[in-house]
Amino acid sequence: MLFKSKKTKRVDEDQYELLKNAEARIRQKKRLYYHFVIFLVGSVFLIVINKVLKYGEEYDWFVWAITFWGFLFAIHFFNVFVNHRFMGKEWERTQREKLVRRQRESIAQLEKDVQKEFLNSDLDKTE
């Protein structure tokens, strides 16, 4: 009883890869949400600095700063939600499988051609 071996759950490679992809995706979304919260707080902070503390009040510079930051946030959003769908892990996997399949087909075709040439050369030698 003291020396019983513990049974461990084994996760197959596909499930492990799916789990890793899900964890990476969660981290991406979490960073995006943090970026959004910091963007909101930072925008309010920039407005307060410009309007309430009257730093550079002759010009509304906070508008340009918030616009630039919003553009960076839009790029981040695009990379997480739009670009990931088109060129994410699933896309990489299908592309890899497609290339491997093409290579196998070309190797099989080459093997056929070599066997055909070998048979033809054997037939020529026997004649």
Short description:
With 127 residues, the protein is mostly helical. The chain has helices at 13-52, 61-87, 89-126. The protein is elongated and about 100 Å long.
Q: Which structural class is indicated by helix and strand composition?
A: mainly alpha
Helix segment tally = 3
Sheet bearing the most strands, described?
Answer: none
Amount of helix: over 70%
Which spans have pLDDT < 50 for at least 5 consecutive residues? none
Q: What Rg is obtained from the alpha carbons, in whole angstroms? A: 30 Å
Count of distinct structural domains: 2
Alpha carbon gap, first and last residue: 77 Å
Question: So what's the overall shape?
Answer: elongated
Using DSSP, what is the number of strands?
A: 0
Strand content: under 5%
Nearest-integer average pLDDT: 84
What's the order of the H and E elements? HHH
